[in-house]
Amino acid sequence: MTKREMIAILGMVIADDEKKICKLIEYLVNWDEIGIRLLGTAYDGLTALKLINEKKPDILLTDIRMPGMDGLRLIEEAKMQNEILKCIIISGYKDFQYAQQGMRFGVRDYLLKPINQDDLTRTLKKLVKETQEQISIQSTRLHLEETIKNYTGTFKHLFLKTVLQKQLSEQEENILQEVEKMNAADIMKNSARCIAVKPNISYREFTEESYQLLTEKTLEIAEVEFSSHNWIWISEVTEEGIFFLLFSDALDRKELLESINHIKERVLSLQDLFPRLYFNAVVSEQADSCIQLIKRIKESRIAIGNRFLTGLNTVSEIKPPVANANLSSAMDARILKLLEDRPDAFDMEEIKKCVEAAKHIMKAEDITTCLQVKKNLLLLLNYYLNGFKQLDSSLDEHEKESWFSEMYEHCTSLEQTFRLLEDTLCETLMNVLDHLKNREIKPVIYAKHYIEENKGINIKLEELAKNTGFSYTYFSSLFKKETGKTLTEYIQMVRIDTAKKLLTEKERSVSEVAELAGYNDIKFFTRQFKKTLGVSPNEYRKLFTNR
User: Fold this and answer.
1) Where in this chain does the record put each Response regulatory domain (predicted)?
2) φ, ψ of residue 331 in degrees (nearest 5)
């Protein structure tokens, strides 16, 4: 099978109102080498959509601003016809809102004007590769060739993945026993270093789509950088960051640091797409054995977690933290004491006071590792979530904890971690209270509707309460809390309102009105009517007949 036959031939449409841009793209791309066939170009959105419907392309490369229909609307319309269409936006507009909206429509990448040939080629190659992987499942031969080609690399990657999945508290010797089953001799043919990289978007601007794109961009930049040195490397992406293992017996430390700084500069240059973008990286010492490499990976995880202590946008060499057990124990004890002293009733102000007090406790200690900070933040979170659970049994506290842990990794400072905790707790409490209110209000609405529908006649209060799912005593207090009236008072009001309407009809006598309103005793009806409105039924009728 020739190289040409191995490449999937994909169709592409270009849409841009600048004809020069379309011609430039045609000129910059080596279409045959990449494996793409240009199906046509369009200079406005409506023509582009017609062309897409006719030619059925696999890839759409479009500008944002075009006459007739803008690029985002074009993508939305085109994806309705072909949901697997791969879309790339090309634009000179540095507006993150366009990027965010594009991600929701499934945009796979962005190119900024002026177009760079290498960026364009790399992006198109990536899309071809993705498509090729989707359609090559049937080709066992290609899969076998790829497996054999990357046989050693597979062991290295499995090693890294396994170590990263372990708890930081797990002993290195225990991890070693597990990874030795993978042919450790192949893993450590060369010395190695671990590099942990954290490209970051503040949790307040975080979306899964934008962070995935940022991670992909960072990996692309690192691949170009590492490949230029002919280094052997593998990578693994986790919530904590992107971890690389570089294998070389002659890996120059200074050269490596310069390369990581170059990656940092390239990533931070993406701020046109990702405002408030941050980058941190840590480089481990060299490892000459599997047990050493396991330790280096663990040190890298701790160090990238400690980025709050080193500042934003830094590349640093790892200095293993010296944990002070006495300080950690003292901090834990003070946080537990703080929670013991909190009142049982939860409200927004109490939560804010507690978080502020915890912040002062933790900042007063000589923090050497952020692991202790995260541990205590989770302690505070779970304390309140358990309390909220008592108020609302439908609350999924595990989902909240998982979300908090994920967003914690997108905080950019210690201060922001406390703000995240406060926001999470206050928002959760608000949702719990809203849910409780809705859960209680709905039965009250049902009861009011039932009473009004039946005009307050023949209402069995015990049965009505039972139908709402509450005991009669509890529901009575709940009803009064929401309406300001007891159930009996509300029924009386509805019956009097019914009588008022009937009294305006001249053909009905007062005794008939009393009976239709559910009163068997006309004297009792008259007393109740006058007590409520200050006039007798006859006097009320005269007020209307004299108008």
Assistant:
1) 11-128
2) -65, -45
Q: Indicate if the alpha-carbon torsion angle 473, 475, 476, 482 is positive or negative.
A: positive
Distance CA 377, CA 421 (A): 7
Residue 56's CB is within 10 A of a number of other CB atoms, namely: 12
Q: Dmax of the chain from CA atoms?
A: 109
**Cα angle value 121/123/129 (rounded, 5°):** 100
pLDDT digits (tens, 9 = 90+) for 187-205: 777 889 999 999 988 888 8
Measured CA to CA, the distance from residue 185 to residue 190 in angstroms comes to 10
Whether the pLDDT of residue 458 is over 90: the answer is no
Q: In angstroms, how far is CA 257 from the centroid of its own chain?
A: 33
CA nearest neighbour of 101 among 142, 56, 71: 71
34-37 contacts, C-beta under 8 A, 24 or more apart: 34/7, 34/121, 34/124, 34/125, 34/128, 35/7, 35/8, 35/9, 35/10, 35/128, 35/132, 36/9, 36/10, 36/11, 36/12, 36/124, 36/128, 37/9, 37/10, 37/11, 37/12
CA-based R_g, the chain, Å:
34
- Of the pLDDT bands very low, low, confident and very high (cuts 50, 70, 90), residue 52 is very high
Q: For residue 114, say if its preceding peptide bond is cis, omega within 30 degrees of 0.
A: yes
Report the C-alpha gap between 354 and 387 in whole angstroms.
14
Distance of CA 225 to the CA centre of its chain: 30
Length of the chain measured in residues: 547
pLDDT band at 184 (very low <50, low <70, confident <90, very high): low
Tell me phi and psi for residue 169, to 5 degrees.
-80, -10
**pLDDT tens digit string along 211-259?**
899 999 999 999 999 988 888 899 999 989 999 999 888 778 899 999 9
List the structure tokens of 523. 């004297």
Alpha carbons 48 and 214: distance in angstroms, whole number: 28
How much is the pTM? 0.60
Q: With contact defined as beta carbons under 8 Å apart, do 270 and 214 qualify?
A: yes
Residues 143 and 258: beta-carbon distance below 8 Å: no
- Judged by DSSP in three states, 29 sits in coil
Amino acid, res. 287: A
- Secondary structure class of 317 (helix, strand, coil): strand
Instruction: Please tell me the distance from the alpha carbon of residue 103 to that of residue 289, in angstroms, as a whole number.
Output: 43
**CA–CA separation, 102 and 11 (whole Å):** 21
Q: Which of 208, 163, 187 is nearest to 301 (CA)?
A: 163
Whole-Å CA distances, 107 to 25, 79, 210, 483: 19, 10, 10, 51
